[in-house]
Design brief:
Blueprint (H helix, E strand, L loop, with lengths): L17 H11 L3 E3 L6 E3 L1 H20 L3 E2 L5 E3 H4 L3 H7 L5 E5 L2 E9 L4 H11 L8 E10 L13 E11 L2 H21 L5 E5 L11 E8 L5 E11 L1 H6 L2 E3 L5 E3 L1 E8 L1 H10 L16 E5 L6 H17 L4 E3 L6 H10 L4 E5 L1 H5 L2 E6 L5 E5 L3 H26 L1 E2 L5 H13 L6 E6 L3 H11 L2 E2 L2 E2 L18 E6 L3
Parallel strand pairs: 3-7, 15-16, 15-17, 20-21
Antiparallel strand pairs: 1-2, 4-6, 5-6, 7-8, 8-14, 9-10, 9-23, 10-11, 11-14, 12-13, 17-18, 18-19, 21-24, 22-24
Helix pairs in contact: 2-6
Bound molecules: zinc ion.
């Protein structure tokens, strides 16, 4: 892995090689480690803490909207997968199987779950008898397995962590409302907390979840112009209800199938957050997600440390009391070494205080995102930190939004123009970005774009910035205005 192109922090610059930058940045920040099991990583404490913060925000929103958490088994009998034809076809290629226990071969082999619609379907068929049992609103926090050929920490691993919501409703209308509500929650959490702008929209049939009637997604642009599907919400219709015989006696005394939904977000969000905000100096965590929002570092000669600590300690307590996630770095290392380390870890704000600052009744605050430094009076520190954290959060979102706009192409009308655009960008080593294109709805046109340019349809945004009249591939009338991009 030796590469002469790394910077003084040991990180490959983004402009040099974005994927190498990503690996360098997460390793320097100590978020994960590889294991001897291919495609399976350890989430080290700093990486796991990012997940815990995402979890806690998401979980709060799920509960506010009436959902409760449960836990279903990780092993799913093979026969369950056969009950929904598209589902089995979609997931079979990446299922790991348990075939024996001890020295005995199992009568029926068991898959490590790739998702739980089948197990949930089976259980719901036993729990739901009457309209009085509906709706069922359950979420599960769990690990899932998809045996991937090409893996990338946090973004695509063979085992990953996620949440999967599974709901059952009496009517299509209600189930569709639920599907949209959860997509909206995903958008709000990802935009407000992770400071990542997303496009909400519908997936094309070829990109749909295996077994769904309709799949909706939020899609985010990374700093290399590629897309990440950051969350999905599916209206499953009666597909799983028929497969698993989930019927209820309705008010009109008729037996009916329920309408189900499922929705999920995963540890991909960690990878997205890093790829949207990180820079050549390492991670840049948005304040609302940062495990540590402010790190306090005493500076100046050791013999004057006592004088500094007289101000340092009460300030630390004040900040903590104000609810700021603050850490004091009192290790026996040079300030420069500490600055570097906390920069790599993406802590939004650093507070420096030395003997001269004590004399002047002040501290220095340094922003991770812009590098800007401000001098602040001691008795205004808490207030200033609070204001700055809000400001950094807003500006990080705005910067990501500006970047997205700059790398979105709205005026490419034909496949010829698209090929020329891709060639041009590749020649200049620039991001291909996202292309908003008309699409007639034919799968052959979608795959033509994919074959020629490696851009895939991301989603059909609910609110397209412009509406396209002609299909980019065949030139006939466009039915859908669709985002196309290269994706992780
Ligand atoms: Zn077409």
């Amino acid at each position: 892995m030796a590469d002469g192109k790394v910077n003084e922090k040991g990180i490959t610059p983004q402009s040099e090689n974005f994927s190498r930058w990503y690996i360098d940045a997460i390793r320097k920040a100590d978020l994960m480690d590889y294991t001897p099991v291919r495609g399976c990583i350890v989430f080290k404490p700093d990486g796991f803490e990012l997940w815990e913060r995402i979890q806690s925000v998401m979980d709060g929103r799920f509960k506010e909207t009436g959902h409760r958490n449960a836990y279903f088994p990780m092993l799913i009998p093979e026969s369950f997968f056969q009950k929904e034809k598209e589902h089995v076809e979609g997931f079979n290629p990446e299922l790991p199987w348990v075939t024996e226990a001890g020295s005995e071969k199992l009568e029926e082999k068991l898959a490590l779950r790739p998702t739980s619609e089948t197990m949930v379907g089976r259980m719901y068929s036993q729990w739901i008898q009457s309209y009085r049992d509906l709706p069922v609103l359950i979420n599960q926090w769990a690990n899932v397995f998809r045996w991937e050929k090409r893996t990338l920490p946090f973004l695509r691993t063979s085992e990953f962590l996620w949440q999967e919501g599974h709901t059952a409703h009496a009517t299509e209308e209600e189930a569709r409302e639920e599907t949209m509500q959860m997509l909206q929650i995903y958008k709000e959490v990802v935009e407000q907390e992770l400071a990542i702008p997303v496009w909400m929209g519908q997936k094309t049939p070829s990109e749909r979840f295996a077994g769904a009637v309709d799949t909706y997604s939020i899609e985010a642009m990374m700093k290399d112009g590629k897309a990440v599907q950051a969350g999905t919400s599916h209206y499953l219709g009666e597909n799983f209800a028929r497969g698993f015989d989930i019927q209820f006696l309705d008010r009109d005394n008729q037996q009916k199938y329920v309408h189900t939904t499922s929705w999920g977000t995963s540890t991909r969000l960690i990878g997205s957050m890093i790829m949207v905000h990180g820079d050549d100096r390492g991670l840049v965590n948005p304040p609302r997600m940062a495990p540590t929002q402010l790190v306090m570092i005493p500076v100046g000669p050791g013999k004057l440390r006592e004088k500094v600590m007289e101000k340092f300690d009460p300030l630390f307590d004040q900040l903590k009391e104000a609810g700021i996630r603050v850490r004091a770095d009192l290790r026996d290392e040079s300030p420069g070494w500490k600055f570097n380390e906390w920069e790599l870890r993406g802590v939004p704000l650093r507070l420096e205080i030395g003997p001269r600052d004590v004399d002047n009744n002040q501290v220095i605050l340094a922003r991770r995102d812009t590098g800007e430094k401000v001098t602040v009076e001691l008795d205004r520190v808490v207030e200033q930190v609070e204001e700055l954290l809000v400001k950094i959060q807003e500006e990080m979102f705005q910067r990501a939004l500006d970047f997205r706009e700059k790398n979105s192409y709205l005026e490419i009308e034909t496949i010829g123009d698209l090929n020329a655009h891709v060639a041009q960008m590749e020649k200049e080593s620039k991001a291909v970005g996202w292309v908003l294109a008309g699409w007639c709805g034919e799968e052959s046109c979608e795959s033509k774009v994919k074959e020629e340019t490696k851009l895939t349809s991301r989603n059909i945004p609910f609110e397209a910035p412009v509406v396209k009249k002609r299909c980019i591939a065949c030139g006939s009338e466009s039915k859908f205005t669709t985002w196309f991009a290269r994706a992780y």
